Amino acid sequence: MKLDWKTCFKVIVTAVVIFLVIHFVDSIFATLGVAMSAFNPLITGLVIAYIVNIPMSFYEKHYFPNSEKKSVARMRRPVCMLLGYLTIVLVIVLVLLLVIPHFVSCIKTFIDQLPSLVLSILENKTIIGLLPDAVIEWLEGINWNEIASNVSSIIGIISLLSTSITDVISDIQGTVNTVTSVAPTVVSVLSTALIGIVFSVYFLSAKDKLLRQIRKLSETYLKPKWHERAYYVLGTLNESYHGYIVVQCTEAVLLGTLCTIGMLILGLPYPTMIGALIGLTALIPIAGAWIGTIIGAFMILTVNPIQAVIFILFILVLQFVDNYFIYPKIVGKSIGLPSIWVLAAVSIGGGIFGIPGMFICVPLFSALYKLIKTDVGKRDGEKSGEEEETPVPVSETVSEQET
């Protein structure tokens, strides 16, 4: 094999680049972090715009679709965009109002009842017989009343903070250090959110123009084959994320509604709050419904332990009905991702980015699965087509025609 100077030069440049990347990896990641922080408002705006675009598109399809008036066409985008933002805000506010106040009161009730619960456990001979002596001595040595009093005081402070902002500023001198340390972060988050909302409004109001510009740039600077592939990949990603968001939200609303109705029929406490909580946590893949079940059972336990057991049994039945009857009908093949890959997406996304990573990775894996499956099918089709085009002996063709 003969090496020319161009090949040697490429090898040397590649080796130098790899060395520099490895040697300055910390500086490179720091630079990327600064760049990402600079693009945070833009990325936030794109995410907000993509989410708001889902209800906005729905409203645009039903906002006087057959009207030929120019005024209606002119007002369609602003009115539907406003309705889209109001829908998202209304859902968030309703969930917060239904869940947070009851959750705080349930924790306070549980803490207040903790001493009597522990004492009743220690007086139960059956339970005591199952526990080691060291554990029993440790439980008996704890002053549960003092702990409950302290924790109850803390919960009371939290509840007070949530109901009245004016009571928070009780000691200005003691909160100066906290405010000075938290203020930059709060200001940064608020400014990023506000700028992101402004960007999202611009993206939504001019989305048709932006899409035409992006398509024009793609057609101008990319080869036709690469242009088609890029739009096919982007279309698959959009289909996966759009379908995932719509389907998960629909299934969560239905599951929360059925949970609320079932709890009302069974006479269980906090039906609307726990129903909203079950629907909200159902958005988290795989583990979401169980997280909501644990929290809901904990809340009902503060009222009646027997009802908590009934609630768990009810949720098990509801999960069975949802998994085998409701979810397949609603979701169908919109995600198109096998269970093992859903679990892998949840594990990888949750391990890297937490709960947001689960929402990102599940539809991302679904899109990659569809792209790879389509590509493999296309390659198999091309191979089979090549086999069909191979010459066939004349005797065989004649015998096939006669048969």
Q: Keywords, please?
A:
mainly alpha, disordered C terminus, 403 residues, 86% helix
Fold and architecture overview:
By secondary structure, this protein is mainly α. Helix content is 86%, strand content 0%. It has 15 helices and no strands. Helix 9 runs antiparallel to helix 12. The two termini are 57 Å apart. The C terminus is likely disordered.
Which structural class is indicated by helix and strand composition? mainly alpha
Distance between the first and last residues' Cα: 57 Å
Order of helices and strands: HHHHHHHHHHHHHHH
Tell me the overall shape: globular
Summarize the structure.
The chain has 403 residues and is an all-alpha fold.
Write the layout of secondary structure elements.
Layout: H1 5-23, H2 25-62, H3 70-123, H4 125-130, H5 133-140, H6 144-163, H7 172-205, H8 207-221, H9 224-266, H10 271-281, H11 288-301, H12 305-331, H13 339-353, H14 355-388, H15 394-402
Helix pairs in contact: 2-3, 2-7, 3-6, 3-10, 3-11, 9-10, 9-12, 9-14, 10-11, 11-12, 13-14
